[in-house]
Write a structure and sequence with these properties.
heterodimer; A: mainly alpha; MetI-like fold; B: alpha/beta; six-stranded mixed beta sheet; 38% helix
């Protein structure tokens, strides 16, 4: 038996592809939920909503300051216990749900910081002009502030997303059969551990490139209306 | 000129411990053009922002047309309603950067005032026509010069058909050539019967185009009256100082 058999990588790749939906599922759900929650966290801090803004600050600081692996175990072992004390039983939930929750929360924290700084980067005059045009605060956010913030936040949101893609591989430590979990299992069964991980690496690199290209495309599309105020143009 | 369209009583505003407006009273008649003069930090801009409810006043009563409002305890809904009676032109134009020129003008009509899109577009084009920017309706603010942006800013405010048009140093960030261009435009609006309150440092413009000038200092109205009287024969020492400093730069007999 050869020490390293490159052909094994090719054999493993199709098998890893079958686990791709699990990995993409984590990324998709976490980024969608994270974006929504991140927006709420960001806005409650920008608007300095009483109680909520302090709560958001603590939550963001915790989620950004601890490893996602730790968060995963805390959610997986802690959340059922916590909810049990108020009489809700989630002990029978599928593991993947705890993964979704963990990554959504983690993502929300990173997104919220991107969104918050983007909202603050929109010139203050835009708000004033919206108010003077008779727009309510909610309308001003929806139609003027957030569309401009989105363009500003896009690069750092993209970066968080590729980070999330790599981090999602930690889900295998709870026994999830995502791309990483699958590679782990294949390696154990065939004794071709290095080849299995190499195949996983190739898949992750490919995915990252696709992500980055997609984001670059969106950015290019939005570029014409890129618009940090140029002052007196 | 006896039809008072805006009446303000006892406007107070402080930022922290610093009192910026100390009980300002103001009445503006329909069709009147009022120039608000004074040194920087005298509270002119804050006064304007309070009238537009961009700034939350600490005290005072504001009546515009038929609506009266106690400024320090105004609810959200009434505030928005009052805000929609005025429109504002900003020093730095502040056009919506994610919208086209036309959308900048229609935004307040369609979203703020619930006017049907088609009608709003027509109103907006009329307003852009007035300021000579109709041919740039589909441009983006970033593609316009400062003077052009300010024209659009004026169109955006005009289209809202406000009871009172508020202009906050509309020419302060323009180069000298553009300044005259915008001032001429504002003078035309003044003649066409618009009610306007203009914060400005353009003394000659205030003298020539306004019906009344108000001189403010340290959060209070020091003196007001027809431009000829305030410039030609100021009663208060503070006004004299301010006017003299300006007149020193002009040849003798400038205001005769």
């Amino acid at each position: 038996m050869k020490l390293f058999e490159p052909e094994a990588i090719l054999r493993f790749l199709p098998k890893l592809l079958t686990a791709l939906p699990v990995t993409l599922g984590i990324v998709l759900i976490a980024s969608a939920a994270g974006l929504l929650l991140g927006l709420l966290l960001a806005l409650s801090r920008v608007e300095r909503l009483p109680v909520l803004s302090q709560l958001a600050a603590v939550m963001v600081s915790f989620l950004r300051g601890t490893p996602v692996l730790v968060q995963m175990f805390i959610v997986y072992y802690g959340l059922p216990l916590l909810l049990n004390t108020v009489g809700v039983n989630i002990f029978s939930w599928d593991k993947i749900i705890f993964i979704y929750i963990t990554y959504s929360l983690n993502c929300a924290a990173f997104f919220s910081e991107s969104i918050r700084s983007a909202v603050l980067a929109v010139p203050k005059g835009q708000r004033d002009a919206a108010a003077a045009s008779g727009l309510s605060r909610a309308q001003a956010y929806r139609r003027i502030i957030l569309p401009q913030s989105a363009v500003i936040a896009l690069p750092s949101v993209g970066m968080t997303l590729t980070g999330l893609l790599q981090d999602s591989s930690l889900a295998f430590s709870l026994g999830i059969l995502d791309v990483m979990g699958r590679a782990n299992a294949l390696g154990a069964v065939t004794s071709r551990v290095l080849e299995a991980y190499a195949a996983a690496a190739i898949l992750f690199i490919a995915l990252t490139i696709v992500f980055e290209q997609a984001f670059r495309g969106v950015q290019r599309k939005l570029a014409p209306q890129n618009h940090i105020a140029k002052g007196t143009a | 000129m006896s039809d008072i369209i805006l009446e303000l009583r006892g406007l107070e505003k402080s930022f922290g411990k610093r009192s910026v407006l100390k009980g300002v009273d103001l009445r503006i008649a329909k069709g009147e053009t009022v120039a608000l003069l004074g040194p920087s930090g005298s509270g002119k801009t804050t006064l304007l922002r309070c009238l537009n409810l961009l700034e939350h006043a600490d005290g005072g009563t504001l009546r515009i047309e038929s609506q009266s409002l106690e400024l320090h305890r105004a609810g959200k809904k009434e505030s928005l309603q009052m805000c929609r009676r005025t429109a504002m032109v900003f020093q730095h134009y502040d056009l919506f950067l994610n919208k086209t020129v036309l959308q900048n003008v229609t935004e307040g009509l369609v979203i703020g005032r619930k006017i049907p899109a088609k009608e709003a577009a027509q109103t907006a084009m009329d307003a852009l026509e007035k300021v000579g920017m109709a041919d740039r309706a589909n441009s983006r603010p970033q593609q316009l010069s400062g003077g052009q942006q300010q024209r659009v800013g004026i169109a955006r405010a005009l289209a809202l058909n406000p009871a009172v048009l508020l202009l906050d140093e509309p020419t302060s960030s323009l180069d000298p050539e553009r300044v005259q261009e915008i001032l001429d435009l504002i003078a035309v609006l003044a003649k066409s019967g618009a009610t306007m309150l203009i914060v400005t440092h353009e003394m000659a413009f205030a003298y020539e185009a306004s019906d009344r000038v108000i001189f403010m200092d340290e959060g209070e109205i020091v003196e007001q009256g027809p431009p000829r009287e305030v410039f030609g024969n100021p009663q208060q020492e503070r006004t004299k100082q301010f006017i003299t400093r300006f007149l020193n730069n002009k040849s003798p007999g400038y205001f005769i």
